Structure formats: structure tokens, C-alpha cells
Amino acid sequence: MGEQAQAVPLPPWRTPRKAPAARQPLSQDAIVETGLRVLDAEGFDALSMRRVAQELGTGPASLYAHVANKDELLDLLYDRVLAEVETPRADPGRWREQMRDLALHIYEVLSAHADIARVAMADIPSGPNALRITEAELAIMISGGVPPRIASWMIDRLNLYIAADVHEGAMYAARQRASGKDAGEFISDFFGRFGDYYRTLPEDRFPMMTAHVDDLLEGGGRVRFEFGLDLLLGGLARYGAPGDR
Q: Which residues 6+ apart lie within 8 Å of 101 measured at CB?
């Protein structure tokens, strides 16, 4: 009887229930990966313990067994992003080139993840991947003859420069999205507005600015980032081996 009842098809106005999706086991790794998806899709300001818990289909309280608070989540997210950075083995003959390539690589990785660089501006990153990158930077510079103290200070200045530039780029990107314009149109309108304003300044008070408006506004974010990076590395070269200066 039971088997015959089960064999009878359902009426067309009824649909079989779908089996509930298996809930992902909760772990620190799962929380971090989910947080990264939220960050990339919705931005830094949308990230919260509640939002991550919602994405995982649980309550915020359950996250605290694996992550102490939002600050720890941000630190873990930042180090997860840094896992994408590949570091070279130090080559004394190419130390300046290696430092430049590594800085650009970090810049590109951070730029691909919304405004995660903001984390590095609020604290000293100390996760395993941050330590791995710091170790590589020290090895590269010291192999090139840069004194350890100068190399250590350079790491601080360089990483702050990268984070600040990426943060600025993320803010521009957020304003561009809010404007509803494509990137090219937004940049043209944004800087065009400043150019128009600078040209109205009194020439007797601002002779340099009014004469060099185009120079003040020329060059995109990547171009200016590389310009500043080369200035930093050029200054650092004073401390390297004599043949590399």
C-alpha cells in the first residue's frame, strides 16, 4: 500500500519540495572567503559581521566562535588578499628592478579588491602573508647593499605609499559607480571641472597654476603611481651598493 501510494504522481498543482541546500560548515576560512566575496561585490563599507553571517545563512553570533570581531575579520581578509602576491628570490644584481616589480604587483593585487588597502593604513599588517612579503622585501634590499635600518624604513614608507594610492583609486571608483557614468566619462568630467575652475583663477595671484593647468591634471592614476614609485626607488638607490647608484 505504501509503495503504491508513493508511485502515484503528484497533482499538477502541487510541486515536490526541494531538499534544502547543505549548509557550508562554518570555519574561519569559510568566513574569510565569504567576507572577501562581499567586499569585492559590494565594497568595504558594506562589509560587516552581520552581512557575512547573512551570506552564510547563519546568525552573527555564530561567527564569533571563529573570528573575534570585525577588526580581526579585516586583518584576516587583508592577509588573504596578500596571499595572491608572489615574491621573488633576492637577486643582488637586479634588486631595484625586483623592488619595482614587487611594488607594482602588490599595487595590482590590492587594486583588484575594492578598498581593502584601507586596512593597511589603520594598523601594521602582521599576518603570515604580510610577514612573508616583508621578509622578501628586506632580503631584496639588503642583498643590494641597502643598510638594514634604511631597508626597514623603506618598507614602511613604500607600503604606506601603495596603500594610500590604492585607497584613493578605490574612492574614485566608488564615486564613478555612484555617478552612473562609465570610467572614461567620469574621469573626463571630474578633472575637466577642476581644469575649468583653475583657468578662472586670477593670474596675478596664481601665475604658475593658470599657466600649467594641463600639466597639473595630466596623467592617470597608474602613471602617477609609477612616477612616485620611481622617485622612492631612486632615492633608495643612494643607500645601495656603489655600482647600483
A: 88
Long-range contacts of 203-207 (CB under 8 A, 24+ apart): none
Query: Which of 239, 225, 242, 236 is closest to 99 using CA atoms?
Result: 236
Dihedral over Cα of 148, 153, 154, 156: its sign? positive
Say which residue the cell 593585487 belongs to. Answer: 109
DSSP reduced 3-state for 117? coil
What CATH architecture is 91-244?
A: Orthogonal Bundle (1.10)
Number of H helices, E strands in the chain: 13, 0
**C-alpha–C-alpha distance, residues 119 and 125, integer Å:** 8
For cell 602613471, name the residue: 223
pLDDT in tens, the chain (245 residues): 445 545 676 666 666 666 545 566 799 999 999 999 999 998 888 999 999 999 999 999 999 999 999 999 999 999 999 999 999 999 999 999 999 999 999 999 999 997 899 998 888 888 999 999 999 999 999 999 999 999 999 999 999 999 999 999 888 888 887 888 887 888 888 888 999 999 999 999 999 999 999 999 988 788 999 999 999 999 999 998 775 65
Output the pTM of the full model.
0.84
The answer to whether 50 and 85 are in contact (CB under 8 A) is no
Which grid coordinates are listed for 227?
612616477
C-alpha cell of residue 52: 557575512
CB atoms near residue 145 (< 10 Å): 17
Dist. CA 201–CA 208, nearest whole Å: 11
